């Protein structure tokens, strides 16, 4: 499971091109829940203060494969020593909104879609992935459809009967309507993959990718700076953030719209098909109807951003 973070010291300055000590813990149930796994890493930050590691491959006496991902919610706690040791002085915890199921069932009783809460999960299809391949099982034909990976398998997601998978080097989308896999090579290594409203978004170190379920086409966007995160909105638009820019893909125009950031990118969110990001110095909102980014300078360093919901 790929993990990235910007590393800063106590003054908020980026730790650039330096050895960094990181302890990763998986907590069950809440931000202060039971620790079910922990590991340590010593990694080097890049020129932009970004560190990249693979959770499950660090130094540990625990067994990552024994985590029961279907048993409640899970959180990642990261603790950092900016000097490269084990004196962890900086910590943060966030919920895992998509978890690395080796076999992801799209219809799991009444629990709903754990990858995309709020979406219907009644198609009855299944997706699976291994080190070398991804697979989709169609409930109407009772048939498995397979696709070989380029590079080792990393993750699998689903939405509205379609299935997305990622390897280290490529993204894959399977369309429930024609039982066909569609692949897209990555520029740089895999970082994340998401799915919602039947569409699939993926991000690598150097590019973002959007797959449109209506025409079975991948649309790519080169990133300015290393990739950080990708989201798919409730209506199927896709947003991405890198260290230097924000990007929004409109499913109706099949076009990426970019926005340079003031300061390093921090976080991305969505609401009703619109996309917003925050950087060190500014906040930005993209309107799906105008395909325009609107910016707001911040007083002090940016910390986070949220999207609103309608209360019924």
Q: What do the pLDDT scores average to? A: 86
Strand share of the residues?
over 45%
Low confidence ranges: 100-122
| Helix amount | under 10%
Assign an overall shape.
Answer: globular
Helix count from the secondary structure assignment: 0
Biggest sheet, strands in spatial order? 3-2-5-6
Structural class: mainly beta
Tell me the span between the first and last alpha carbons. Answer: 36 Å
Largest sheet descriptor: 4 strands, antiparallel
Number of domains: 2
| N-to-C series of helices and strands | EEEEEEEEEEEEEEEEEEEEEEEEEE
From the alpha carbons, calculate the radius of gyration and give it in angstroms.
Answer: 19 Å
CATH class of the largest domain: Mainly Beta
CATH fold node name of the largest domain: Lipocalin
CATH architecture of the largest domain: Beta Barrel
Descriptive notes:
This protein is an all-beta fold and 312 residues long. It folds into 2 domains: 2-95, Sandwich (Immunoglobulin-like); 103-297, Lipocalin. It contains no helices and 26 strands. The protein has strands spanning 2-6, 19-28, 34-44, 50-54, 74-81, 90-95, 103-105, 126-129, 133-138, 143-148, 153-159, 162-167, 170-175, 180-185, 190-196, 199-204, 207-212, 217-222, 227-232, 238-242, 245-250, 255-260, 265-271, 274-279, 282-287, 292-297. The strands form 7 sheets. The chain has a 4-stranded antiparallel β-sheet, with no helix packed on it. The chain has a 4-stranded antiparallel β-sheet with strand order 7-8-9-10, with no helix packed on it. It is globular, with a radius of gyration of 19 Å. Residues 100-122 have low confidence and may be disordered.
């Amino acid at each position: 499971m790929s993990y990235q973070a910007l590393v800063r010291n106590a003054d908020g300055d980026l730790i650039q091109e330096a050895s960094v000590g990181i302890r990763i813990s998986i907590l069950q149930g809440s931000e202060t829940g039971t620790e079910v796994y922990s590991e340590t890493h010593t990694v080097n930050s890049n020129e932009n203060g970004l560190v990249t590691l693979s959770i499950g491959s660090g130094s540990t006496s625990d067994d990552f494969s024994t985590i029961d991902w279907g048993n409640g919610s899970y959180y990642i706690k990261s603790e950092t020593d900016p000097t490269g040791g084990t004196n962890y002085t900086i910590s943060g915890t966030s919920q895992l909104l998509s978890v690395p199921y080796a076999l992801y069932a799209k219809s799991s009783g009444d629990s709903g879609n754990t990858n995309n809460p709020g979406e219907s999960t009644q198609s009855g299809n299944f997706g699976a992935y291994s080190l070398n391949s991804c697979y989709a099982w169609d409930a109407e034909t009772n048939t498995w459809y397979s696709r070989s990976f380029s590079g080792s398998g990393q993750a699998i997601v689903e939405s509205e009967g379609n299935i997305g998978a990622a390897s280290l080097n490529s993204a894959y989308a399977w369309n429930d309507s024609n039982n066909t896999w569609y692949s897209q090579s990555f520029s740089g290594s895999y970082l994340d993959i998401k799915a919602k409203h039947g569409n699939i978004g993926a991000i690598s170190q150097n590019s973002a990718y959007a797959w449109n379920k209506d025409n079975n086409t991948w649309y790519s966007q080169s990133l300015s700076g290393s990739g950080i995160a990708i989201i798919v909105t409730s209506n199927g638009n896709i947003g991405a953030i890198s260290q230097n820019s924000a990007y929004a893909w409109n499913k109706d125009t099949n076009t990426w719209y970019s926005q340079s950031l003031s300061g390093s990118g921090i976080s991305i969110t969505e609401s009703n098909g619109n996309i917003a990001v925050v950087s060190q110095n500014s906040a930005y909102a993209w309107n799906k109807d105008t395909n325009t980014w609107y910016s707001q300078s911040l007083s002090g360093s940016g910390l986070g951003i949220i999207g609103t919901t309608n209360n019924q």
